[in-house]
């Protein structure tokens, strides 16, 4: 589980350009929890280019999830809507960033492609 999450963010950082269409821009803070530990990952999306950071910023969208639930999303064993309905994923701010670029990134990294990008 921890390996899958680390690989996801490493792949985003490595392939930041070309993963998303230019129409996406915004800052997403993901807070992943396990027991009393909160792990924070920041995605800065600028015209489709993705940069991964570990610093706290004022996000346009804040996503909170237990680590195991987020790992299921990355593996494709659960969808975003199901996770929200089961209260395994909460969103504050611009939910369109979850439903658009974040969900796209999960799918594209899992499939190993960029759907036509470099």
Automatic annotation (TrEMBL):
Task: Outline the extent of the SCP2 domain.
Answer: 23-98
Q: Which domain of life is it from?
A: Bacteria
Q: Which InterPro entries match?
A: SCP2_sterol-bd_dom, SCP2_sterol-bd_dom_sf
One protein family per Pfam: SCP2
List the signal peptide residues.
none
The protein's name in its UniProt record = SCP2 sterol-binding domain-containing protein
Species this protein is from: Micromonospora zhanjiangensis
User: Lineage in the entry?
Assistant: Bacteria, Bacillati, Actinomycetota, Actinomycetes, Micromonosporales
